[in-house]
Amino acid sequence: MKVGVFVGSFNPLHLGHEKVIELILNKKIVDRVIVIPTLSYWDKSIDVSLEDRINMLKTIENDKVVINTALNNKKYTYEILNELSKEYSDLYLIIGADNIVSFNKWKNLVNILKHHVIVVERNNININYYLKNFNKSRFIIVEDNNIEISSTDIRNYIKNNDFNSLKGIVNNKVIEYIKSKKLYL
Q1: Which CATH architecture describes the domain 2-148?
Q2: pLDDT exceeds 90 at position 45
Q3: Where are the domains of the chain?
Q4: Which of 6, 83, 126, 128 lies 20 to 30 A from 143 at CA?
Q5: 72-85 core/surface letters (b: 16 or more CB in 10 A; e: else)
Q6: Whole-angstrom distance, CA of residue 130 vs CA of residue 109
């Protein structure tokens, strides 16, 4: 079984995230996607609890999309992949093209590149330029003609009580969850 691994803050989950998962499954690149929301690492500020982000992610969980809550304490992607490789032999890391810009600085790239890396196009980034020093056979580039969705913009809409602007960029179950819990206010 080919398993995609989608790691991120999902702060909050939005339709861009959902479309990436759907696209990769529909193209049959992987058979299942494991989604792993991270704790607050690096310089990224996370406005809501891990529990709330997991609950938002559960709105998309099904037989092909699994939310993993056991590996959130892993700080580095290679640690997550190492753990998952104990159970799955064919892992595919899913990243956006915005991550490929600094990919050469990721910790323990040798271990990460034991697996395939799916790079989803974003922001008109020339992915091949950043892959010139890598073995390109480890990478799968996926075109995504989706509109760009900014999690920062979403959080600002919520802070400004502008829930109408969330239509078409955040699924209704997540919007209702955010409202009920008064998140991001």
Answers
A1: 3-Layer(aba) Sandwich (3.40)
A2: no
A3: 2-148
A4: 83
A5: eebeebbebbbebb
A6: 14
